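pinging the channel bc i need a second pair of eyes. not urgent but kinda urgent?? the chain im working w is below, pasted from the shared doc
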Amino acid sequence: MNGNSCEEDIRILQNNPSPLQTKHMPGNKYNCNPSTPRSRLERLLRERELRKNRSFQQLNEGELEFSGSDSFSNDVENWGTVDEEEFMEKPRTFSDSNERQEGRPSKQRLLVVANRLPVSAVRRSVDSWQLEISVGGLVSALLGVKEFDARWIGWAGVNVSDDIGQRTLTKSLAEKRCIPVFLDEEIVQQYYNGYCNNILWPLFHYLGLPQEDRLATTRSFQSQFDAYKKANQLFADVVNNIYQEGDVVWCHDYHLMFLPQCLKRYNSNMKVGWFLHTPFPSSEIHRTLPSRSELLRSVLAADLVGFHTYDYARHFVSACTRILGFEGTPEGVENQGKLTRVAAFPIGIDSERFIRALELPQVQDHIKELKERFAGRKVMLGVDRLDMIKGIPQKILAFEKYLEENPNWRDKVVLLQIAVPTRTDVSEYQKLTSQVHEIVGRINGRFGTLTAVPIHHLDRSLDFHALCALYAVTDVALVTSLRDGMNLVSYEFVACQASKKGVLILSEFAGAAQSLGAGAILVNPWNITEVAASIGYALNMPADEREKRHQLNFMHVTSHTSQEWAATFVSELNDTIVEAQLRTCQIPPSLPIRDAVDSYIQSSNRLIILGFNSTLTAPRDSMERRGAQIREMELKLHPDLKEPLKKLCDDPLTTIVVLSGSDRSVLDDNFGEYNMWLAAENGMFLRLTTGEWMTTMPEHLNMDWVDSVKHVFEYFTERTPRSQFELRETSLVWNYKYADIEFGRLQARDMLQHLWSGPISNAAVDVVQGGRSVEVRAVGVTKGAAIDRILGEIVHNKGMKAPIDYVLCIGHFLQKDEDVYTFFEPELPFEPPPPIPRAKVADAVRASMSQFSPGKSGSKVARFRKQRSLSAIERRVTNNLTTGGWWPTTRDRMALHEGSSVLDLKGDHYFSCAVAKKRSNARYLLGSSSAVVALLKDLGEYSVSS
């Protein structure tokens, strides 16, 4: 690896953390620009400051500002929309080219991919289209973010099958920076109405999967999921056609969960973010979905995954760990070194637009009219889609209970409920409408009078001005969602309450409760009694408390706007790419197979060291463990390796060593028929398959700690279902690979506290934590410490005279055991000259042994600094060459002269490879045990039988 090049890349990336930031001259590690962001937090803070400065500069230069919706947003996510006239006019922020403005860098292109475009198309003739503003969309969130050159990709809401219609519609939409995705009627029915709205949406809102006949459900799931994947691929094809290097692709919502994977397959360097606007359910709910694993893996292909709240993000990470078996970290989800960042980004509204709207004459007229209409009565307000998740019946029943218990308030309070109809053709929604109408009629008939009724119910939406006026005169807003991604009605209400300072009663199951919980009254909408009591508390709340609660909410709503949400997400995505590039610089490259094979052919005395578990075993998907746990507990050699291993073992020029942490019996069972060396328990036991086991353990190894550690392992095995522990002669291993992952981690943490405070507090042991295991072993028991002694035995047994000129070391080793990789690395001198191979150091020691002169050789050995710790034999030789007075025993002389010093490696004849593990001290990487199989097959083709 070219270390200098990598360091230079890191410096450049640190100096240019994002395309949105200004460039700096690259510094070096001794003389860095003090303004260079050194950490992720510094980069994001600087990006935020630059964003604020740009916004301030644009306002001073008189750039246009664009507002959001003129009507209540009644889509699933409560996204805002924009005024049709404003959107249909070509905004100055969407420039037709990426040319630089004077003194200002060009804008980064942002490809926003959502199921629907911000406009809908209505066909007027064969070659003519009328564009109408859509209900919902991301326009209000992104128009205010002026540093991006945004394009919109999505379905236009109309099926166009003829070529002329598609061409003319594409041309019309291009003027609005929109690119259509054309879906035929069958795909829309199966993908949108079927899989998205009938399966994913109910599941994500905790309504469960549709209850149908099991066989019919299975067929329906599969056909709808196939249509879902096909539709996502159509979206990906459109993105790929317009994608340019450096673009940011932002995918939205559950309609496009398969899209990140499709995009990354096309271009692995594409910047891809994915955001969910609904709740993400707990892993126990998500695991009921037949396609659960495919969808999770597809989303994880994105660089950054965003949710409205931390709860949803935590549920997603939990699903990935429990269902896929991946590693959940504070940053996100990690799989074999690939990190997908997962974070919470609460969306907001364009609060300034609502605040400004209150000053408009038409809004003031509405306010005056409403005040006169409801004079002398407190106004309670509910604004919802008429949907099962909005809790409208629960809200009305709680209001009824309050009127029952407080008869003195019956003439003093009115509930205005705006219920926007949706999916009126679906029977469940029709039933809900009838239920709500029945409850409202019953309550009005019970508590109403000839001149007034307690509930005013509207089955329609209001225009923007009327809605703002209604927010402004409201005393108590009542949001009782049973499950809601965010619910921005609560934000809109707070933005319009500068003078009234009304009270917000908010469901704890709405995402907005995470943001507005400090100032709102949180309720469980299923608890009718609690909601009724909260209504009474809100109506009688003192003015000073209303003031404090409102200020808390108002401060959040005005500072966490929709524009800030969009800018923050894209900024985090850019920074995530920077961090990924920094990590890539530290990841070893893939093994150059051709070079490894060529060096093998050219060499005359080869040593191949192989790990066992996850290296020579057959790969298994994590989900297969559920049905094959007993089989996987018994490690088995990959069946495709039997023939190439035999060829390599029969080659007289090749020595094979299987170096494993497993027990001796495991290696005997798998490799007894091959002519090779077996090193069990991290090299502490060694044998040639034609001979007997011998020990290579250091003398005076203290094992008094074993019994006490064993008792601790037994205790935690009993209390952790599906865990197990293994007692070896030099170590104990507790494995929770098959246990519940999160529970296993908690138990492992508890176990470590018990061990450190008790059994091993004063013992000479090392505690090694694996991915799903805890191992306690004696100090010095590592593969790297054992390899020198193993080499000595091999050299002595074979009577090896020719130097070893080729070493291939492959394994999936624990971090503690990766010293075996560095054992064969060349040594570095004190001074800058080129590295001196380890063989020359050994030659110096060997020369000193044959021409023993402490004064002469001592200074020669002392010139070299070791990259690894010396073996015990080398330490004794080196120390006594400088001090005199010690001569090695016969066995030590053999091990030194015939073991370590027999190596004569050139740098390009040593290949160390980590398998499926990107954080490693190895020189190279191999993706899986299948890649190991392919490599050994290639080497076997050039092996000569003895």
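so The longest strand covers residues 108-116. and The radius of gyration is 35 Å. — does that match what u expected or am i reading it wrong
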